[in-house]
Write a structure and sequence with these properties.
The structure is a homodimer of 282-residue chains.
Chain A (H helix, E strand, L loop, with lengths): L2 E2 L2 H21 L5 E7 L3 H17 L2 E7 L5 H13 L5 E4 L9 H7 L11 H9 L8 H12 L8 E5 L6 H10 L3 E5 L6 H5 L4 E4 L17 E4 L3 E2 L5 E2 L4 H4 L5 E2 L6 H20 L1
Parallel strand pairs in A: 1-11, 2-3, 2-4, 5-6, 5-7, 7-8, 8-11
Antiparallel strand pairs in A: 9-10
Chain lengths: 282, 282
Amino acid sequence: MAKILSGKEVVAVLNEQLAQRAEALTQKGVTPCLAIVRVGERPDDIAYERGATNRCTKLGIAIKNFLLPEDASQQDLLDTIAEVNEDDSIHGCLLFRPLPKQFDDEAIRNALRPEKDADGITNGSLAGVFAGTDQGYPPCTPAACMEILDHFGIETTGKKAVVIGRSLVVGRPAALMLTSRNATVTVCHTKTIDMPSITREADILIVAAGRANIIGKEYFSPGQVVIDVGINIDENGVFCGDVNFAEAEPIVSAISPVPGGVGTVTTSVLAKHVIEAAEKRV
Amino acid sequence: MAKILSGKEVVAVLNEQLAQRAEALTQKGVTPCLAIVRVGERPDDIAYERGATNRCTKLGIAIKNFLLPEDASQQDLLDTIAEVNEDDSIHGCLLFRPLPKQFDDEAIRNALRPEKDADGITNGSLAGVFAGTDQGYPPCTPAACMEILDHFGIETTGKKAVVIGRSLVVGRPAALMLTSRNATVTVCHTKTIDMPSITREADILIVAAGRANIIGKEYFSPGQVVIDVGINIDENGVFCGDVNFAEAEPIVSAISPVPGGVGTVTTSVLAKHVIEAAEKRV
């Protein structure tokens, strides 16, 4: 019987702290504010926007929406980001990506000021994750994994951590963040040979494989802490992670569920970054 | 009897190619040019400057020296970097660091245009290493490790690589570069528990521990390729690496020596970056 690392528990404690910090800012005359920049009407983006807006509003964070049509030009979006940069009432910015094909993603990302980069997309934020400094902000998903570890008091120093996945938004930043937290980190990916023999050695296993239920019992060993970053819909239309939960749970000592795990925490992390950015301004 | 991964062999082949590329550029009316910016008179900097200048001059790369006094101000150095940025005849820049204490390192580093960042110090270059893209240039030392692997035809895909050290200039970028080259990479450091049990599992071991002869026989196993990044002077005043060469060499299948290994290759890598930057401009 593994301990269930419930995202709801993390969020309950985190949100209480964040609401207090937002209130303290408001009393100083600064209402923390998130700009949400969306190009087009992709359903995933709209769903995440709704979740982020609800979360932020409940915490006392204002939202400014910037909506551009699907066929907007590079210059239109650069103008929007310039507006976000120059508006002193805005502390953080969420820009939905991937962008439609007409955009130069690199130029767009780096037009945003790192100090407003609440979702960790600029080179300045990447450099901060790389170096383990507080420049910019890390991407919200790996930061949510760290929040879960912190909340449940899971020590990382001297531990063996294995990250499955080497993406720019999850695997690589999660590995660097764990290295900065003194874990001995191994990154596995599609070219890794005999991955289960590596993951079974982990004390902490972060799974961002990107395929439903793909990580089965041969990947686990007793005593492990497993954080499942995957969000998939299985053949029965049910939400599931990258980990085969039914196989993992009897073996490991702790595991984050899907739904109700990492995904639950990301919008609170986004809110945390906005509040931190506002606090730095005061 | 391990194969000796001689830096001289790598450099001989690399320099021949680079001289041809520099000549081709010169025939097109573009002489590749490196700016060397030095603050103060630190002997290590002066020694490296001499080596880099000799190497570049032999390859047909021009050098422009910018020398500032030890007590130069932040603005003096920013002005110098602006001059480097604006001078179209300069393709790459080497800036010696660490800088004296009066400087804001972050602001100085990022004042340089990433396309002239031949030594990989800007956030743009870090982001390129992070993402495995060709934005900016990687730091010369981990890039020299990759040159050695490439020269001797050492396959990285699917191999287990272990990096000892998590510094910003060697360990972390080397790990990310090996991940981009499809190795399964583990980063060890001072907080790693039972490091020898981890390094013995490596197919490729990159050692940047920063202490003379510290990595002894218990760290190695047969069949390994070892790249020693360390440059130290032992108690007898002799150059040595971080690896105890006498203990490692009988066990492993290939090893880079110190001196004559990675350190021999770094100035050629710097020259390569300058030539690449000039080629991108043509």
